[in-house]
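Mods, move this if it's the wrong board.
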Amino acid sequence: FSHKIKGISMSKWTPEEVEAIERGGNSKAADKWLMRWEPRDFAEPDGSDAARCREFIRMKYVDKRWAEREEGQTRRGRDEERR
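Not the wrong board. Structure tokens:
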């Protein structure tokens, strides 16, 4: 993968990067990339198996296997629709 990672305490951040993080964050990223993900279909790896972690990352970000399909739909919205 060719993604860059920045550490919170060891990296220098531009004001634009800080604003982008504040607007986004993990929950919004999960809404986008894991909207249709069900742990029973492919459990999130714990980090002990590098090949499984790599496969999960590929399916999540490259294949977009569980990504949002309809604009504006959230995981919560999807979960509530099932009830």
